[in-house]
Structure prediction request, 805 residues.
Amino acid sequence: MSSVLYDTPGPRAKRRNVIFSVIFTVLLVLILWWVWRTLDDKGQLEWSLWEPFTEAQAWTTYLLPGLGDTLKASALAMVIALPLGALFGISRLSDHRWVRATASTVVEFFRAIPVLLLMLFANEFYVRYSDISSEQRPLYAVVTGLVLYNASVLAEIVRAGILSLPRGQSEAAMAVGLRKGQMMTNVLLPQAVTAMLPAIVSQLVVIVKDTALGGVMLGFTELLNSRGTLAANYANVIPSFIVVAFIYIVLNFILTTFASWLEARLRRSKKGTGAVLGGDDVDDINAGEVGGTATIGTGGKK
Amino acid sequence: MFDFLEGYNVLGAFWMTVKLTALSAVGSLVWGTLLAAMRVSPVPLMRGFGTAYVNIVRNIPLTVIIIFTSLGLADIFGMTMGAPDDFDVQGFRLAVLGLVAYTAAFVCEAIRSGINTVPLGQAEAARAIGLSFSQILRLVILPQAFRTVIGPLANVLIALTKNTTVAAAIGVAEAALLMKEMIENEAQTLAIGAVFALGFVVLTMPTGLFLGWLSKRLAVKR
Amino acid sequence: MMLRKVSAAAAAALVLSLTATACGGDDKDSDSGSGSGSGDKIKIGIKYDQPGLGLKEPDGSFSGFDVDVATYVAKELGYKPDQIEWVETKSADRENALARGDVKLIAATYSINDERKQKVDFAGPYLLAHQDLLVKADSDITKATDLNNKKLCSVTGSTSAQNIKNDLAPKAQLKELGGYSECIAALQSGSVDALTTDDSILAGFAAQDKYKGKFKLAGLKLSNENYGVGVKKGDTATIDKVNTALEKMVSDKSWQKAVDDNFGPANYKNEPAPKIGTIVK
Prediction:
C-alpha cells in the first residue's frame, strides 16, 4: 500500500519493516509482561477480585444505577443545552451588532472556563440559594455546569453548521423574497441541523466523559462514583477501576461509531448540500475534552 | 472588598495551573508527535498501536486517567516519579503524566490531520529525490504540517489549560481545588467564582489570540 | 429520503437513550421518594461505603452498626424496617441534609462536636470510638510519633491525618485518597505505611475477607469520637424519643447484640455503651 509518505515497499524496505515490527513487538510484549507480572505480584489478578463482575448483583446494585445516572445527566445536559446553544449560535449571526456582541461575549466567556469550576460554583450556589434536596443537588450541579459549558460549544457548532451551508442557499432564499427569519427557519436551520447531527453525537461523548468529574468532586452518584461503593464491598479497587474504564470505552466507542456512521451517511447522500460537521470539527471547537476558543472564534475577532 | 482572598494563596494556585499546563504541553507535544509518526508509519503494527491508543484514550474520561495514575501507577506499579517520600511533588508529576497521556491523543490527531493536508506531490517530489521515510517526515512533511496544525494545536493547548483542573481529583493544589475550598468556607460565593473565572479567561484568552494570529501568519498559501 | 432516514435513526437513538435514562430515573425516585410530610416513611441518612457501620450490600440491602442502631430507633419511633428509606449522606453533606429536612435522622459515624452542634442537634451518643491507626500486621509502628518520616493515608477532606501531622508527627507525609478502600489498597501494596481515622471504621475494613489477618489496629486512642444521631436543630421532641430508644436499646441488650453482630467479626474491642448525654471529651 502506498501513501503520501512512502512508496509501496520494495525488498529492502520490507526487510526493514519486518525488523521494526519485531523490535516494536518485543517492546510491547515486555511492557505488557511487566504490567501483568506487577499486577500478579500485587495480588490484583486473584480471581476473587474479578469474580463479582461475573455476578448480576455487582451490576444491578452498583454499576448499572451508576451508569443510569451518567446517562441521565448526559441526556439532560444535552437536551437543555441544545436549544440554548441554537439560540446563542443564531444570535452570533445576527445583523444587529449588540445582539452579536452579547452572544459572543457569553459564549466566549463560558468556553474559557473549565467545566469543573462551573460545576463547583453551581453546587455551592444551590447549597446556599436554592431548595434542592441534598440528594438531588449533585445532579443539578453537574447538569448546570455541563449545560453552561456545552451550550456555548453547541452555539459554535450551530454557527459553524449554518456557515457550512453553501452561500447559494441564502442567496436563493433572499432571491425568492423570504425574510431573514423565514430564511433561517425554513432554509438554513433544517439543513444545518442535519449537517450538525454527527457533531452533536460527538459532543455527547465529551459530556459523558465530563460527568465523571461530578462523581469525584461533587459526590454525584454516577458510574465512577458508584465504583467506590462497589469497591468498599468487594475490596477490589484496581479491578473495579479497570472494569469502569472499560464501560466508558465501550459506551463512548458506540457513540463515536454512530457519529462516524451518520457523518459518512450524510456525506454520501446526494440530497441536500452535502455540508457536514463531523467529529474532527467538534474536536476543533471543543479542542479536546473541555472546550477551547476555536479558530473560528478567535480568528474572527482578529 | 477583597478580604475574602486573605489567607488563601490564589496566585500560588494559578501558578500551579500554569506549571501543570506548561509541562504537560511540552510532554504531550513530544508524545503526540511520536504517536502521529506511528499512525502514519509504514509498519502496520505501529499504525495499529497508534490507532488503538488514540481510540482508547479519547474515550476514557480524563478524571479516570488522572485517578488511575495515583491508584494504579503509583500504588500498584510503584511509579513514584522520583519522589517516593513527597506526595505533593509526586501528585504533581503524576498529574502531568496523566495529562500528557490524555492530551497526546488529541495532539496526535491534530498532527495527523495536518499531515493529511500536505499535498501528495510534496511527498512524491521528496521521494523522487531519494529521501527516506524519516527524512521526508522531518524535512518536508512535518515543517508544513506543523504550520497548518498550529490552529488546532492552539485549541488543544487551551483545552489543556482548562483540563489541568482535573488534577484536583488527586489533590494537586491548583486553582480548582483552592476554589472548592474557598467557596465552601467563605460567604462571597459569587465574588470567588468571578475571581477564578477571570483567572482562566486571563490564562486562555492570550493563548487563543496569539496562536490564532500566528496560525494565520504562518498559514501555507496554496 | 436519505436525510429523513438519517434523522429518523438519530431520533431513534435519542429516544432510546432517553428511555434508558428514564429507567435510571425511576430507580432514583423510588430511592428518595417525596421529600416531606409522608407520615408512613422515615428517611435516615447513613454511609454506603463503610463495612461494619453502614454498607450497601450487593443485594441492595444495608448492613452495619449504624444501620442497626437506626433501625432500632426507627422501630421505637413507630416505623417498621420496610418504612425506612435509607439515604446516602456523605460527610460534607450531613449538616445541610438535616437542616433542610432531607432526612429525619442521621446515623453515619457522626461525631458530636461543638462546631456541628451550632448547626444541628444530636441524640445519644450511642458509641464511643477513637482515632487510631491501621498498619500492616508486621508493622513496627506502635505510637503516633513513629509516623515521622512515614507515609500516612486518609480520605480527602478528613482532618484526622492533619491533626496527627500538626500535633504528633510533623514529619509524616500525608496522602489523601478518595475513599478508605483506596487507602487500604495503598496500605496493602506498601505505598503508604498507615491509615488513620476512627478505629470503628478501620476495624470494619480490616475484617473484610480479602484483608483478614493482613492488618492490625495500633490501639492508640488519639481522640474521642462520640457518635450521635443527628437531628434537625431544635427538634427536641425527636431528640428525646431517640434518646429513650437508645437507652432501651442498651437495656434490652439489643445494643450489645448489634455490637457483636457488626464488630465481632472485626475483632473490634469497643468501649462500653456510652451514657446518653455524656460526651467524652
Notes: The mean pLDDT of chain C is 84. Residues 131-217 of chain C form a domain with the D-Maltodextrin-Binding Protein; domain 2 fold (CATH 3.40.190.10). The interface with chain B takes residues 92, 149, 151, 156, 173-178, 182, 185-186, 189, 191 of chain C (CB under 8 Å). The radius of gyration of chain C is 22 Å.
